[in-house]
Amino acid sequence: MYNCNGTLITSLGEADRTITHSLHSAFSIHEIICLYEGQILFWESHYFRMIASLRRYRFAIPMQFTMEFFQNEFEKLKKAEQITEKGLFRIQFLQYNGETQFIISLEASPSLGVKVGPYEVDLYKEAFVTSGNLSNLSPTNRGLRIMAKRYAEENGLEDVFLLNEQKNLVEALGGTLYLLQENQLITPNLQAGCQDFVLRSAFHNWLQKEQSTFLLKEDKLNPFELQKSDEVMILSLEKGFVSVSKYRKTQYRQERIKELYSLFSKVFS
Fold this sequence. Notes:
Helix content: 25-40%
CATH superfamily of the largest domain: D-amino Acid Aminotransferase, subunit A, domain 2
CATH architecture of the largest domain: Alpha-Beta Barrel
Number of helices: 6
């Protein structure tokens, strides 16, 4: 089921013609939002990120696009789908004849957690993310990520790490990349071109203000740092905390990631 401009429909065939036309031909902006124990996680931050993206890409922003408006639209879909506890909302904004439209879907999903076990990755070097703040926005490198995902599938990999034109690490396809070296948690800075996810920001705020076990460092990251790391983690709303087990010939421990998740999960428990 979908919420299409405020109207619930069971298939895209029921959508207004302008929506289906835009889905086929128009540029769009996406946001993934987590429903956790019946509540939307970090909703205010998600809302401001969506509005900032719409402004950046010169989408018209109707006056009714308030926080309360979208909360009501999410609630409408939640009741219709009978998914009340754990799930992922996906909202997509499109333009048709200068008007901004939206379509929302909701699917049940496991709650945020920690994943350990076999998870092999490599570098994707066939194309590069452009460093700078335009790449912080999720739509900017969508085509590159599709190609990288195909590469991972063809080579039997769970994920790949993207590089920018300076050959520095940017992120994984699955989310934000972190290298654990002793008590330092190192991640590419925004200037590298990584996406400025809401979960990334919330995690960094927590690391800097509410705990002292792990020291956050945002910096330029050379791929050689992967071989010097004790553990490697990927963070995303869709998968939670994912512990990487292998990069090329380097095997990683998968122990302290559990400790890190246990501490952070108290923020939204």
